[in-house]
Amino acid sequence: MTETAPKSTISQNPDIRLLGKMLGDVIRAYGGDKLFRQTEYIRSTSVDRYRGVAGADSSDRGLGALSLDDTLDFVRGFMLFSLLANLAEDRQGVAKEEGASFEEALIRLRSEGVDDHTLMELLSNSLIVPVLTAHPTEVRRKSIIDHKNRIAALMAMRDAGRDVTPDGDNVDDAIYRQIALLWQTRPLRNEKLFVADEIENARSYMQQVFLTALPKLYMRWEKALGHRPPGFVRLGTWIGGDRDGNPFVNAETLRYAMARDGGTAIRHYLEQIHILGAEISISSRNSDTPAAVMELAERSGDTAPSRADEPYRRAMSGIYARLCATHVALVGDQPPRPSALAGEAYATPDDLRADLVTLANGLAAGGGGALSTGGALGRLIRAVEIFGFHLATLDLRQNSVVHERVVAELMKAAGVEADYLALDEDARVKLLLAELSHNRPLADEWHDYSEETAKELAIVRAAAWAQKHYGAGAITTYNISQTESVSDMLEVYVMAKQAGMYRVAEDGTPSATIMSVPLFETIADLQAAPETMKAFFALEPMRALAQARGHQEVMIGYSDSNKDGGYITSTWELYQASSALAPVFADVGVSMQLFHGRGGAVGRGGGSAFGAIKAQPKDTVQGRIRITEQGEVIAAKYGTVDNAVTSLETMASATMLATLSPDKIDAGDEARFRAAMSELSASAFRHYRGLVYETDGFRQFFRQMTPINEIATLKIGSRPASRKASDAIEDLRAIPWVFSWAQARVMLPGWYGTGQALDDFADKGLLKAMASEWSYFQTILANMEMVLAKSDMGIASHYAGLVEDQAMAGTLFGQIKGSWQKAHDSLLDATGQAHLLDANPALNNSIQLRLPYIEPLNLLQIELMKRHRAGEADPRIGEGIQLTINAIATALRNSG
Ligand code: PGA
């Protein structure tokens, strides 16, 4: 059913062939000859059918012959093949995009006349942050990902022409061993994940990847720029602070996250100092030691006679001792290699940095500056600048309805007469502003608050504690889910005030150590966003706060707006809201910082980050951007130092280009294109809402057709699958919504409504012009094209067969299928291609390679779901369904 480029063009990358062959050998060696033959039969018949090989049999797929035990093994084998294929592709840089390197971006900007001064000025005001979140879409266990990374490292040795590893193992044997271990590793988690597991998981990326990748990148950038750029790319996290719909996140998890992440940063610095101490063996007999270094050496307390003439080593002993004391102060215990010297803990990362800079200046002073070129010490100084004592900035997030209840309870307990919850917006704002006009707290330490209020108060207090101990950069932002109005933002400042994070000076000027950030995530809230922000800035204290800070962040939610209004409407409203927000910010002289809440799947704003940033409306990037990185995207983009370097650089280049060299588009065209988008969006919205929210029985159709219930039981995240006990689509979280449509190969959130809208649109010439000239529209189509290529209405029809009311299923699925065809045909018409993905052969190849592996998994999943729903109690059935979900998600690459 999926109509893509001619099959003969599909080529197999040699790494996939090698790894696939080894996997086959492992299956034969460990699973037995019968399993190997069954697997091979299913694989080859499926591949032949997909390639259109004459005589390929579609009636006998070999699935019926599998026992339940065989099924579990077979699915595991296909899952591992996909995993290895992903690995091979990532190595070949399928994800690398043209023009995305920093050097390429610089060449382009310089050719357009952007001078170094402008560039450095931009970077001084820039902030680019990937924010790691624990959104539950990563189906693979960490042990599986670790094996995959080990294989990638071994493959890199192979590329370098090495037969033997540094430890003396044969490289091919070592790869085989890793695959054999993979085969014998359980792919599903036995236990539910806890918040602490999620913190550890992200921390391992920070430790193994970010701590190395970022300082390394800065070195490269410094060379390319010819100047030392400020720390404009940093790291963020939500894990341990995002409690929207997750009752397990609290003050404890926040403190735990701070201690784990902060401890990791400090231990990294200790290790680097230790290495540098061995290396910088300069003797004062052979070199003039600057006074500042001498002074550090004297203060160190290091009196070892063997180092008496080695001022740098002595100074570093002192720094090491002080860092150990810092570890004790912040983490609660000694680091693994404690110092024998007594030292006073550093009060701030800046103090540590100052000592390191003293050493660097000392090294640079002699010998014509030969030792001044960064090196390990330069990278360490950079690391301290960007990671501080906290490693990643931890955000808080909670739902606005919770804040409303908490503030209402605080007011009631404090004797405020009005019933806060009963007030209208104006009255609420007035009351909140009054509360924010002085420093007298509302919270009473001795009052017995409800569990919810006590918990919320505890977390803001923990945040204030973290800022004090780990530095101001440890926590800077408080995101508010489902922001509808200004009062939602003020409530957060009222809560912050209870912990001293919002204060008023004697002259009435407010200051805050945390920023209240609205998250606009429904279509209506996005449409109202410019007015909401205008009203916010119209409040004098809020304007003063934002102006003093120089910037204000607004978060926009891709998934929920998509679930609310469908693909094209969500994209368009995000674009419109961003464009309309820019002048609101310009009017008050405050820089706008957009925080993009997106996931990996297209229905959740996924797709190329480079393309997405570059396609942002003019004047909306302004050098400042934060983007969530979630689930499977984290391993794909930041799984290794090399991947992370590419991904971070892509973000930085796209941000520079979007700010200084936005796509130029003729004003007349822009007006025509925008008008067309409004029409397309309105039409798509009607179709999407008509199906999803206005069709009787749709909810039941969706629940029976897709594995939504089975997805809810996957052990992939600490938070419950839904915010409320309701089966309404409105209340379902966006992740399981997108995830379940992907499994059923419909991928409805990535395209539904758009097909009808494009088909109905009268001026097809205009659509073609938009597709060739407007990068924003190109991105919309490119993402939809990928989704269409991964969807398959033939397979989806089998899922529709799971619905009890077959008459209803026939009608609704018929509608979906018709719409898919329209999306497909209109897309080809607008782009002038003969087949999907003609213009993107690498992606086409990647998808084509996987399709024959996914179909048998889908068919097995359907079979198992039927048995499960018929009440068969064998636990292997439930396990089989979960394994197929895992395998399909791995093969599709973007699960939720
Ligand atoms: P949320 O995220 O449900 O945590 O708001 C939505 C998403 O990222 O899909």
Largest sheet: 9 strands, parallel
- Summed up, the helix count is 35
Q: Report how far apart the termini are.
A: 23 Å
Kindly name the structural category: mainly alpha
Shape designation:
globular
Q: Regions with pLDDT < 50 over 5+ consecutive residues?
A: 1-9
Number of strands: 11
Q: Give me the side-by-side strand order of the main sheet.
A: 3-2-1-11-10-9-8-5-4
Helix content: 55-70%
Q: Roughly what is the average pLDDT, rounded to an integer? A: 93
Radius of gyration: 29 Å
Ligand species: 2-phosphoglycolic acid
Describe this structure in words.
60% of the residues lie in helices and 6% in strands. The chain is mainly alpha-helical. The chain has a nine-stranded parallel β-sheet. Strand 6 (502-504) and strand 7 (510-512) form a beta hairpin. Residues 135, 244, 481, 559-560, 597, 599, 604, 733-735 line the site of 2-phosphoglycolic acid (PGA).
